[in-house]
Design goal:
Helix 1 packs across helix 4, helix 4 packs across helix 5 (about 80-90) and helix 4 packs parallel to helix 7. The chain contains seven helices and no strands. The longest helix has 21 residues, at about 60-80. With about 130 residues, the chain is mainly α.
Length: about 130
Amino acid sequence: MLDVPIHHPFSLVALNRDGVVPELVDVLIDRGFTRRELDWIVPARTLAYRRRKKERLKPGETDRFLRAAKILAAVEAVFGSREKALLWLRKPRGTFGDTSAMELMRTEAGGQLVEEVLGQVDEGFFA
């Protein structure tokens, strides 16, 4: 999805440490997220600043970006289409305490819960 080579688990660590270019946020927008839905990754004003200064995202921002990209790729793989994936991410669910996966994935713990439930959906436990 991101066209970023990951040859070894340490590649991901290095990518996070070094940061990604701000333009990669546009990939998530092109895949259906709204800019507003991505404010938790990096606020629009900060993103514009990073673009202007040709700076990479900071490690925390990159970590959040990678979490969103990873979850989106996994949801698309499970549901087979981008449209179904985005509907699943946006719909509040009892499993998530009547909030959406999109809201939960803003934190590391929430992202892990989303991935766990997504794995259960993929195994056919529930949707």
